[in-house]
Amino acid sequence: MLSPRRLFSSGDASRASGLTRFELLVLVGILMILAGVGFGPITEHLEKAKINRAVESARTINTLLSQYATDNNGVYPVGESTSAAGKSEGIARNLLENNYTPDATIFAVGTTVPYSGKASDFSDIAAANISWDFTGGATASTGITTAASDLLPTVYGTGENVTYPTSAGIGLDLTLSGNGPFGKKGIVVAYKGNNAAFIQGTASGTTVECPGFISTAFKDAGPYTQIRP
Asked: Which of 49, 78, 135, 138 could be disulfide-bonded to 223 (CB atoms 3.0-4.6 Å)?
Protein backbone atom coordinates (compact mmCIF):
# COMPACT_ATOMS: atom_id res chain seq x y z
CA MET A 1 0.00 0.00 0.00
CA LEU A 2 1.33 3.41 -0.96
CA SER A 3 2.03 5.81 1.90
CA PRO A 4 0.48 9.31 1.76
CA ARG A 5 2.67 11.84 -0.05
CA ARG A 6 4.31 14.13 2.47
CA LEU A 7 4.41 17.90 2.02
CA PHE A 8 7.69 19.43 0.91
CA SER A 9 9.48 21.60 3.47
CA SER A 10 11.59 24.67 2.58
CA GLY A 11 14.62 22.45 3.12
CA ASP A 12 13.26 20.02 0.56
CA ALA A 13 12.80 22.88 -1.93
CA SER A 14 16.33 24.17 -1.44
CA ARG A 15 17.78 20.70 -1.86
CA ALA A 16 15.63 20.19 -4.96
CA SER A 17 17.15 23.38 -6.41
CA GLY A 18 20.62 22.13 -5.62
CA LEU A 19 21.23 24.65 -2.77
CA THR A 20 21.18 24.13 0.95
CA ARG A 21 19.55 26.67 3.26
CA PHE A 22 23.01 27.91 4.29
CA GLU A 23 24.01 28.37 0.68
CA LEU A 24 20.83 30.34 0.00
CA LEU A 25 21.58 32.66 2.92
CA VAL A 26 25.11 33.21 1.65
CA LEU A 27 23.76 33.99 -1.83
CA VAL A 28 21.24 36.49 -0.45
CA GLY A 29 24.00 38.14 1.57
CA ILE A 30 26.23 38.49 -1.49
CA LEU A 31 23.37 39.99 -3.51
CA MET A 32 22.67 42.51 -0.74
CA ILE A 33 26.34 43.55 -0.64
CA LEU A 34 26.40 43.99 -4.43
CA ALA A 35 23.19 46.05 -4.28
CA GLY A 36 24.73 48.28 -1.59
CA VAL A 37 27.90 48.80 -3.61
CA GLY A 38 25.90 49.81 -6.69
CA PHE A 39 23.42 52.04 -4.81
CA GLY A 40 26.03 54.62 -3.79
CA PRO A 41 27.20 55.57 -7.32
CA ILE A 42 23.61 55.60 -8.60
CA THR A 43 22.52 57.97 -5.83
CA GLU A 44 25.53 60.19 -6.45
CA HIS A 45 24.77 60.29 -10.19
CA LEU A 46 21.14 61.29 -9.56
CA GLU A 47 22.21 64.03 -7.14
CA LYS A 48 24.69 65.44 -9.66
CA ALA A 49 21.99 65.41 -12.33
CA LYS A 50 19.68 67.43 -10.05
CA ILE A 51 22.43 69.94 -9.35
CA ASN A 52 23.26 70.28 -13.04
CA ARG A 53 19.60 70.93 -13.87
CA ALA A 54 19.43 73.54 -11.13
CA VAL A 55 22.55 75.30 -12.41
CA GLU A 56 21.08 75.41 -15.91
CA SER A 57 17.79 76.76 -14.54
CA ALA A 58 19.67 79.49 -12.63
CA ARG A 59 21.58 80.43 -15.77
CA THR A 60 18.36 80.54 -17.81
CA ILE A 61 16.55 82.68 -15.22
CA ASN A 62 19.55 85.00 -15.07
CA THR A 63 19.40 85.46 -18.84
CA LEU A 64 15.68 86.21 -18.63
CA LEU A 65 16.31 88.82 -15.93
CA SER A 66 18.88 90.50 -18.14
CA GLN A 67 16.51 90.51 -21.12
CA TYR A 68 13.79 92.03 -18.97
CA ALA A 69 16.18 94.78 -17.84
CA THR A 70 17.17 95.52 -21.44
CA ASP A 71 13.50 96.12 -22.27
CA ASN A 72 12.76 98.12 -19.09
CA ASN A 73 15.26 100.95 -18.91
CA GLY A 74 18.01 98.79 -17.45
CA VAL A 75 16.05 97.86 -14.32
CA TYR A 76 15.60 94.25 -13.20
CA PRO A 77 12.12 92.98 -12.23
CA VAL A 78 10.80 93.03 -8.66
CA GLY A 79 7.29 91.74 -9.31
CA GLU A 80 5.57 95.07 -9.99
CA SER A 81 2.02 94.89 -11.37
CA THR A 82 1.54 91.45 -9.81
CA SER A 83 -0.15 90.33 -6.59
CA ALA A 84 3.28 89.36 -5.22
CA ALA A 85 5.39 92.48 -5.72
CA GLY A 86 8.64 92.27 -3.78
CA LYS A 87 8.44 88.46 -3.68
CA SER A 88 10.18 85.77 -5.72
CA GLU A 89 6.88 84.56 -7.16
CA GLY A 90 6.16 88.13 -8.27
CA ILE A 91 9.41 88.20 -10.24
CA ALA A 92 8.53 84.83 -11.75
CA ARG A 93 5.16 86.26 -12.80
CA ASN A 94 6.83 89.31 -14.39
CA LEU A 95 8.89 86.98 -16.58
CA LEU A 96 6.00 84.64 -17.35
CA GLU A 97 3.28 87.22 -17.98
CA ASN A 98 5.53 89.28 -20.24
CA ASN A 99 6.41 86.23 -22.35
CA TYR A 100 10.09 86.02 -21.46
CA THR A 101 9.48 82.31 -20.85
CA PRO A 102 6.46 80.01 -21.13
CA ASP A 103 7.99 77.46 -18.75
CA ALA A 104 7.10 77.98 -15.09
CA THR A 105 8.80 74.76 -14.03
CA ILE A 106 12.26 76.36 -14.28
CA PHE A 107 11.47 78.14 -11.01
CA ALA A 108 11.35 74.83 -9.10
CA VAL A 109 14.37 72.62 -8.37
CA GLY A 110 15.24 69.97 -5.79
CA THR A 111 12.27 69.07 -3.60
CA THR A 112 10.22 72.15 -4.61
CA VAL A 113 6.87 71.27 -6.17
CA PRO A 114 6.83 72.46 -9.83
CA TYR A 115 4.02 74.73 -10.94
CA SER A 116 1.11 72.85 -12.47
CA GLY A 117 -1.58 75.53 -12.45
CA LYS A 118 -3.91 76.47 -15.27
CA ALA A 119 -4.25 80.26 -15.05
CA SER A 120 -3.40 81.92 -18.36
CA ASP A 121 -1.67 84.78 -16.51
CA PHE A 122 0.10 82.44 -14.05
CA SER A 123 -1.70 84.18 -11.18
CA ASP A 124 -1.90 80.85 -9.37
CA ILE A 125 1.87 80.34 -9.14
CA ALA A 126 2.72 80.30 -5.45
CA ALA A 127 5.69 80.58 -3.12
CA ALA A 128 5.60 76.78 -2.83
CA ASN A 129 6.54 76.58 -6.55
CA ILE A 130 9.63 78.78 -6.21
CA SER A 131 13.16 77.61 -5.34
CA TRP A 132 14.88 80.95 -5.80
CA ASP A 133 15.76 84.17 -4.04
CA PHE A 134 16.67 87.26 -6.02
CA THR A 135 18.70 90.39 -5.40
CA GLY A 136 16.84 93.68 -5.27
CA GLY A 137 18.03 97.24 -4.87
CA ALA A 138 17.88 99.28 -1.67
CA THR A 139 14.45 97.76 -0.96
CA ALA A 140 12.49 94.79 -2.26
CA SER A 141 10.43 97.17 -4.38
CA THR A 142 13.44 98.52 -6.29
CA GLY A 143 15.28 96.46 -8.86
CA ILE A 144 19.01 96.30 -9.41
CA THR A 145 20.24 97.94 -12.58
CA THR A 146 22.50 96.97 -15.42
CA ALA A 147 25.14 99.21 -13.81
CA ALA A 148 25.58 96.73 -10.94
CA SER A 149 28.76 94.65 -10.74
CA ASP A 150 28.93 91.45 -12.79
CA LEU A 151 29.97 89.74 -9.52
CA LEU A 152 26.64 90.50 -7.85
CA PRO A 153 24.48 87.38 -7.24
CA THR A 154 21.18 87.89 -9.03
CA VAL A 155 19.44 84.55 -8.36
CA TYR A 156 20.30 81.79 -5.88
CA GLY A 157 18.76 78.88 -4.00
CA THR A 158 16.22 80.01 -1.43
CA GLY A 159 16.29 79.28 2.29
CA GLU A 160 19.51 81.05 3.28
CA ASN A 161 20.00 84.44 4.88
CA VAL A 162 22.18 86.71 2.77
CA THR A 163 23.61 89.90 4.24
CA TYR A 164 25.22 91.72 1.36
CA PRO A 165 28.58 93.31 2.15
CA THR A 166 28.41 97.06 2.65
CA SER A 167 32.16 97.55 2.31
CA ALA A 168 34.03 96.98 -0.92
CA GLY A 169 36.31 93.96 -1.13
CA ILE A 170 35.28 91.99 1.96
CA GLY A 171 33.16 89.43 0.07
CA LEU A 172 30.90 86.89 1.73
CA ASP A 173 31.31 83.23 2.70
CA LEU A 174 27.66 82.23 3.00
CA THR A 175 26.75 80.18 6.08
CA LEU A 176 24.26 77.44 5.20
CA SER A 177 21.20 76.87 7.35
CA GLY A 178 20.27 73.66 5.56
CA ASN A 179 16.90 75.07 4.48
CA GLY A 180 17.79 75.43 0.80
CA PRO A 181 16.88 72.98 -1.98
CA PHE A 182 20.19 71.14 -1.47
CA GLY A 183 20.46 71.47 2.31
CA LYS A 184 23.99 71.86 3.58
CA LYS A 185 25.48 70.26 0.48
CA GLY A 186 25.74 73.68 -1.13
CA ILE A 187 23.92 76.37 -3.04
CA VAL A 188 23.23 77.15 -6.69
CA VAL A 189 23.90 80.76 -7.65
CA ALA A 190 23.98 82.84 -10.83
CA TYR A 191 25.75 86.18 -11.10
CA LYS A 192 24.92 89.25 -13.13
CA GLY A 193 27.79 88.44 -15.48
CA ASN A 194 25.84 85.23 -16.36
CA ASN A 195 28.18 82.85 -14.58
CA ALA A 196 26.21 80.12 -12.77
CA ALA A 197 27.62 77.51 -10.43
CA PHE A 198 27.00 75.13 -7.56
CA ILE A 199 29.12 76.20 -4.59
CA GLN A 200 29.71 73.18 -2.39
CA GLY A 201 29.30 73.52 1.34
CA THR A 202 32.55 73.33 3.32
CA ALA A 203 32.82 72.66 7.05
CA SER A 204 34.14 75.66 8.98
CA GLY A 205 34.27 74.88 12.68
CA THR A 206 30.72 74.03 13.77
CA THR A 207 29.13 75.57 10.66
CA VAL A 208 29.00 74.81 6.95
CA GLU A 209 29.83 77.63 4.55
CA CYS A 210 29.87 78.25 0.81
CA PRO A 211 33.20 80.04 0.36
CA GLY A 212 33.29 82.93 -2.06
CA PHE A 213 29.51 83.21 -2.47
CA ILE A 214 30.36 86.87 -3.01
CA SER A 215 33.94 87.29 -4.15
CA THR A 216 36.37 89.63 -2.42
CA ALA A 217 36.82 91.13 -5.89
CA PHE A 218 33.29 92.55 -5.50
CA LYS A 219 33.87 96.28 -5.00
CA ASP A 220 30.28 97.51 -5.04
CA ALA A 221 29.27 98.88 -1.64
CA GLY A 222 25.75 99.85 -2.69
CA PRO A 223 22.69 98.70 -0.69
CA TYR A 224 21.09 95.45 -1.82
CA THR A 225 18.09 93.49 -0.59
CA GLN A 226 17.23 89.80 -0.57
CA ILE A 227 13.92 89.04 -2.31
CA ARG A 228 12.35 85.80 -1.08
CA PRO A 229 9.27 83.75 -1.92
From this structure: 138
